[in-house]
Amino acid sequence: MPDSPTILYCRCAYAQVVPTGVKNEVLQQLCASDASFETVSDLCEMAAHRDPRLQAIAGCGKLRIAACYPRAVKGLFQQAGSPLPDDTEILNMRTQTATEVTEALLKS
Amino acid sequence: MITHTHRPLRVVLYEGTGSIQLPADARAKVMMALLDKGYTVTRSGHGASAMPHDDRSLLVLGAFEGKAPSLEDATGQVSIDTRDITGLDADSIVSLVEKTRGDKPMNEPGKWKPWFPVIDYDRCTNCMQCLSFCLFDVYGVSEDNKIQVQNNDNCKTNCPACSRVCPEVAIMFPKYQGIPINGDEVNEADAKREKIKVDISSLLGGDIYSTLKDRSTAFKSRFSKERSADKALDERKKCLTKLVGDGFIPADVLANLPSTDEILKKAEAAKAKAAAALAAQ
Fold first, then answer.
1. pLDDT of B250
2. Do B109 and A14 contact (CB within 8 A), yes or no?
3. How far apart are CA A77 and CA A86, in angstroms?
4. CB contact under 8 A, B1 and A2
5. Could you tell me the pTM of the whole model?
6. Mind listing the pLDDT tens digit for each residue in B168-207?
7. Any idea where the domains of chain B sit in the sequence?
8. To the nearest whole angstrom, how far is the Cα of B214 from the nearest Cα of chain A?
9. How far apart are CA B129 and CA B166, in angstroms?
10. Chain A residue closest to B119 (CA)?
11. Which residues pair with B140 in a beta bridge?
12. Residues of chain A contacting B40 with CB distance shorter than 8 Å
């Protein structure tokens, strides 16, 4: 397991419920950093299809996720049979600013 | 439950040793374009903490200055393609990825909305009200008698009716706009005041759409409009009407849409199922 947290960014591409400006800015700031990170097109779509990749995500140790409401994100993983570790940090791009989200994702 | 997963490629934007880093804005453009097409993309730089790989093909993109290396999976289980993207713009890179994917099917945004209930098991009390309320068999009971979403592809897009009648505010639809159905934290004080103990038989009885019509002042808090049993019933009606309006089902099948009698029958069956599950707990 890696010591540094794995960063995951959800694009919410299947429905536009995350403000476009925020999700674009978060991705731009991640891209402007030196960090390695994972991105997915839409966690809801993956959960609907029980995508085995969710299990890989949940099992990769410490996680920081930029997506939407933490309660919903935890529920999606649990419902797909891959519950997230308790210490997973979930940032909400529906309510937080891009700067808040990115700072939390990239903090050391 | 939908189980088909068409995601044939994991794209890796490789910027580690042996490749040249893209400018940040070009990197962001490429990633946005690929994500909006439905791909999953890993940005791999120096000191990467990448997620473990699965059994899909890997497409490694990098500015290798014309010399994309040949790579082979040590286990022999995954095919790895490498492509040089030196000098290509975002559109050209997407075209390159699409060409590499070929005619392998892939789930794509815009063709379907992932709409289904998500249960918050920290709140759910396993009362089975959702199972009784949903007309489309979205819910079922697990082997250990726990409520679960079993047929999420049966759920009618934009209908969050079951969420509105959940007495514990435990059902979320992440693609919904309003709180708390979208998964926002539940204000416990409001939830207690608003707990809607619905008599399923009255909801589903002959007076199905009129019993609750007079309840105009029952809900006053910040999400009262989202937690209305009236609204839930309206939405359930809309789902049925939409099926008709969309021409989604042939005329001869329309006759088989739930009538009041059928709904009652279904309610009884669901009730029995729920009672059995509750008794077995």
1. 43
2. yes
3. 12
4. no
5. 0.82
6. 999 999 999 988 999 999 887 766 655 555 555 444 444 4
7. 9-101, 118-280
8. 33
9. 7
10. A75
11. B148
12. 38-41, 53
